[in-house]
Every structure is written in structure tokens, then in C-alpha cells.
Write a structure and sequence with these properties.
CATH architecture: 2-Layer Sandwich
CATH superfamily: STAS domain
Order of helices and strands: EEHEHEH
Number of strands: 4
CATH topology: Transcription Regulator spoIIAA
Shape: globular
Structural class: alpha/beta
Length: 98
């Protein structure tokens, strides 16, 4: 479970769930680009913190871009009807679910 900046993107690895949402909130709120290709599991708490990060970015008049998503993230975003809510769309995902 890590969150580190790599190639100017905040890369999240491991779970993005209720157990880590509070820990990841501050790094996500300051991010301009997020790489979720290493996320193995995401729940509604993880989605909520992503949406909060997006609203915060809009309020600060900058764009939040998700540069890559795992199949686990893509599946949840599609299920919730949020696949097009972030750029690029969640349909352009990387990696597979373990």
C-alpha cells in the first residue's frame, strides 16, 4: 500500500478503500494527476475521496486528471456510472485485476 509521486502523477497502489481513504485524502486533494493503475480494490469510500479531489480541483480552478486506472477501478467507476467523470475515461485502463 503506497502513494508516491512518479512522473508528475500521484501513484496509488494497493487498496483505495474505507481503510485508507483518510490516509490518502490529503495527497489526493493536492494532486493534479493521479495514476490508479496499481489499485487492487476500490470501494465507495475510495470513490468519494476521488470525487472530493475532483471538486477541490475545480474549486481551485485546475484540472484533476486520472492518467491510468486498473481494471478494478474501471469496473467500479462503470458500475456507478462514473466512467466518464475523470479524464481520460476509465475505459482506457491499464493492467489487470490480480
Amino acid at each position: 500500500m503506497t502513494a508516491a509521486v512518479h512522473d508528475d502523477a500521484l501513484r496509488i497502489e494497493g487498496e483505495l478503500t474505507i481503510y485508507r481513504a483518510a490516509e490518502l485524502k490529503q495527497p489526493l486533494l493536492g494532486a493534479h494527476r493521479i495514476d490508479l493503475s496499481g489499485v487492487s480494490e476500490i470501494d465507495t469510500a475510495g470513490v468519494q475521496v476521488l470525487l472530493l479531489a475532483q471538486r477541490t480541483a475545480q474549486a481551485q480552478e485546475h484540472e484533476l486528471r486520472i492518467v491510468a486506472v486498473s481494471s478494478a477501478v474501471a469496473e467500479v467507476l462503470e458500475l456507478l456510472g462514473l466512467a466518464g467523470a475523470f479524464q481520460p475515461s476509465a475505459s482506457s485502463h491499464a493492467g489487470g485485476r490480480p
